Amino acid sequence: MKALEDLVTLLSRLPGIGKKSAYRMAFHILKLDGQFAALLAERITGLKDKVRFCSRCGAYTEEDPCPVCSSPSRDRSVLCVVEQPQDVLTIEASREYHGLYHVLGGLISPLDGVGPDALRLDRLVDRVRELGVREVILATNPTVEGDTTALYVKRMLDATGVRVSRLATGMPVGGDLEYADRLTLVRSFRGRTGL
Amino acid sequence: MATTSIQTVSFRNLEDDTVDVSAPTVFLVGENGQGKSNFLDALYTLSYGASFRGGTDLEAAKLGTKAWSLRRQSNDDTGLDDELVVAWDEGKKLLKENGKAIPDRKYLVDKTPAVVFCHGDMEFAQGEPERRRFFFDQTAGLVSLAYIDALRSYRRALKARNAALKEKMLDVLDILDIQLATYGTELIGGRKDLIQGFENMFSERYEQVSRLGSKVGLEYRPSWPAECSSDEINDRLLASREREVMFGTTLSGPHRDRFVFIDDHGDFSARASTGQLRLLALTLRIVQAEYCSGMSGKLPLLLLDDVLLELDPEKRRRFMENLPAARKAVFTFLPGEPYGDYRSADTAVYWVEHGRLSNTAGV
Prior knowledge:
The complex is a heterodimer of chains A (195) and B (363). Chain A is an alpha/beta fold. Helices cover 45% and strands 13% of the residues of chain A. Chain A folds into two domains: 2-50, Helicase, Ruva Protein, domain 3, CATH 1.10.8; 76-166, Dna Topoisomerase Vi A Subunit, Chain: A, domain 2, CATH 3.40.1360.10. Chain A has helices at 2-11, 19-31, 34-50, 67-70, 85-94, 121-131, 144-157, 182-190; strands at 52-53, 60-61, 75-82, 99-103, 135-138, 163-166. Chain A has a four-stranded parallel β-sheet with strand order 4-3-5-6. In chain A, strands 1-2 form a two-stranded antiparallel ribbon. The N and C termini of chain A lie far apart (66 Å). The model of chain A has no long low-confidence stretch (mean pLDDT 91). Chain B is α/β, with parallel strands linked by helices and 363 residues long. Chain B has two domains: 1-112 and 327-363, P-loop containing nucleotide triphosphate hydrolases (Rossmann fold), CATH 3.40.50.300; 128-295, Up-down Bundle (Glutathione S-transferase Yfyf (Class Pi), Chain A, domain 2). In chain B, 42% of the residues lie in helices and 22% in strands. Chain B has a six-stranded antiparallel β-sheet with strand order 2-1-4-5-6-7, covered by helices on one side. Chain B is globular. The model of chain B has no long low-confidence stretch (mean pLDDT 91).
């Protein structure tokens, strides 16, 4: 069944989807009525047509500038730097942060041939100056590449005089010491704070 | 934690079976190539999530198959059943403890620490410095998750820095220097602490096993001065930048550290006989097990692969007398070896033939 195999090949190229899951999805689509399959196909095509990058912050958006950049209620003195557009959605879901975003579009990784030039770094300095930003919050992951990028951005922003901070790492809120991941615990001890 | 049984499916040449390993000492007896070491490797893989024999996970699959699975049943300290699964399928490694996924194999290591004695250990005594670093990194990792974390971060930063040097990404090098110095000084600190605790234990044990009559010590020689701060290391890296860009690689750091065995005349392993080196390698493993149980309070599983084969009867006796305390010990023997001399009332003996373990015929 070539049609089935073709779909499975495509689906299994998606992140987190193995061959078995791809087959399960394909069989499920076969079982459902034709309207669902048509709607799914239309939504997937529509996604690429409608969603683009915000020309200011680099987040995914259907209108340019994005709702965050164009909202008068957001705090323009704080800028949160993230690696990927989807990180914006994750932070927005917390409803804790009310400033603006800047998406780098990746992390510095010489191993993958990604240098600072491949990221939206020049635009970051311009935005800090244009917006009169007082604080830049670096929200890159606590990995070697995330650390490299954070240190690079910090150095780059030194000349602007802006305050640069980084998201804390450690025990999750509501977490129980007994069930904490051991490495998280090790890092929490090292990054402990005074009371 | 008392391991009671091991189930192997499509693993190397072993027949799919569940083997009772509840005895405190297990002897695997058989001719070469029958599966003795493969069974030891199954036990090792259940402790480390990886083989001690090297090679890929695909190579660990039985000929004609592309997946394998190992299951270990144990009783924990409260007497409850504990099940651990390490499996490989469709190119993915799967680790599960009592049905729940374990995210990283580093979490296996201190759960049930294992120490393997095998022929390749000779490389710790006389091989490349990289092999000794491997041994001491493994020892430190057995008792410290933070050390494993620092080692992984250092290796990642080193690879990134080497790539940046090769590609002449000079604007990133300042940052990578900071990272290399930070992770590197952490590693050096960990290695210094390890050697402080390890050195005395090693000297004493080697004297007991070898009866050499003179002291053999252990010295840690870091590539960067051990007393340097990460800022000072950073300055050194900057000073050697031009040369490193020319070579396209990082020329100093913990990846170039050395561990040297010394006696009154200097480098001991450069002058030692093959027999002395063999005992040195065995002593390293004995002390690794003792250090591990002393620091973590957990007795290790000992896996001894043909270690007595190349020792004369007197050295065998001394080695057996000096065996460290263990949760369980599993030995492999060739049929001609006098394994009966080392057997006790609670030793289980398995005959291994064509990948099948049986505790009746041929023993």
